[in-house]
Amino acid sequence: MKEKIWLSSPHMGEKEMIYVQEAFASNWIAPLGPNVNGFEHDLETYLGHNVHVAAMSSGTAALHMALIILGIKTGDEVICQSMTFAASANPIAYQGATPVFVDSEESTWNMSPEYLEEAIQDRIKKGKTPKAIIVVHLYGMPARIDEIMAIARKYGIPVVEDAAEALGSTFNGKAIGTFGDIGILSFNGNKIITTSGGGALVSTNTDYVNKARFLSSQARDAAPHYEHSHIGYNYRMSNVAAGIGRGQMEVLPLRVQQRRSNYQYYKKAFATIEGIEFLEEPGKSYYSNHWLTAILVKNSNFTREDLRLCLNENDIDCRPLWKPMHLQPVFADAPYYGKDTSERLFDIGLCLPSGSNLSITDLERIVSTVSTIYDYVGVPHLIKTSV
Ligand SMILES: Cc1ncc(COP(=O)(O)O)c(C=O)c1O
Questions:
Q1: Which residue has the least CA distance to atom 12 on ligand 1?
Q2: What pLDDT score does 381 carry?
Q3: Within 10 Å of residue 24's Cβ, how many Cβ atoms?
Q4: 186 C-alpha vs ligand 1 centroid, how far in Å?
Q5: Model-level pTM?
Q6: Atom of ligand 1 nearest to the CA of 188
Q7: Is residue 110 within 8 Å of 262, Cβ to Cβ?
């Protein structure tokens, strides 16, 4: 049997173990320490634009912190991109608030500015101004963030950028995650860099970042004993995990290059197959880390499911796009604004193996498996629509 090719697996550099060993040698096996400070500093330098960073135990924890800091509470409404991973929306429910979902637009697959404004206006008409907007940069592709920020500012609503998948992406040269009032990152095992599990809260607002550090380490007031005037959380990143993160930061630019080159490889290889379209940067302002190469299958002879099963049966991992939140049973009662863009993308979209550690042999195997699709679906070669 052939070795399995994963969708996106961890890819260590050469320095991670050194930082982790330092944590052991100095006995900083704690949710704070020099690696946490160092990792935060490395992220601040990489992102630029005077941002401050608080390292967290996960991207989900960072999102939850962001909503707490913005004062989201029971009964509030928070606008959220519908097409995303559930972790973008779950923290809204943790706070007892209601998510209001907004459809995607075709060019970036992210939040539609048009439906965002429609949603805001309608919620205001119904008597409730949304308290925050969560916009996501799926698969590393920057959302139409300039338009979204302009709409948010017009109505005075703070923006949380879910940049879990987009570290290394930019819009007009500015790092994704630094546009909103708060941004969040994820270092889960499948992300462009990983700390095995981890996340970060990003903001130019020092009060927000200091508050995140305080609340995420059990909200201990300054006193010799344990004194608490706020509800706290145990959401800080450990010094061991941050050691992995420091090593990963040294290879981040290379990882971006490797993921982008996977995308280029697939694009060239599939150019002759009819009806395979890529999630592409829609203009010069957009620079995607291409965390995952995502395609749409619009071929009359085979479907997305045919292609997914054909790859899976050959031990090649690939996944449908995120199923929109407004279609999820758990959010069935939540308001939704838009039409069927995210639903259509979900029906025909597929994420291809995209790890920065894919070898050329892996890529060749993936492409040659895709090229067997007509045989897989039993379409006679004579009526093949591709070369
Ligand atoms: C879009 C998006 N938001 C949030 C998260 C949550 O991050 P984490 O797994 O670090 O909690 C993820 C990934 O897991 C994600 O892909």
A1: 164
A2: 59
A3: 12
A4: 6
A5: 0.97
A6: 10
A7: no
Contact 134, 105 (CB under 8 A): no
Spatial distance between the Cα atoms of 249 and 46, rounded to a whole number of angstroms: 9
pLDDT reading at 1 higher than 90 = no
109 close to 135: Cβ distance less than 8 angstroms: no
Return d(Cα 125, Cα 188) in angstroms, integer.
39
Q: Bridge partners of 135?
A: 161
Put the strands of the sheet holding 349-352 in their side by side order.
Answer: 276-278, 293-297, 349-352, 319-320
pLDDT tens string 8-63: 999 999 999 999 999 999 999 988 899 999 999 999 999 999 999 999 999 999 99
Which pLDDT tens digit goes with each residue over 98-129? 999 999 999 999 999 999 999 999 999 999 99
Inter-residue contact 187 to 195 (CB < 8 Å) = yes
- Look at residue 387 and tell me whether its pLDDT is greater than 50: no
The three-point CA angle 186-39-166 to 5° equals: 30
Q: Provide the H-helix boundaries in the chain.
A: 16-25, 34-47, 59-69, 90-94, 113-125, 145-155, 206-215, 239-269, 304-312, 341-348, 360-370, 373-377
Q: Which atom of ligand 1 is nearest to the CA of 197?
A: 10
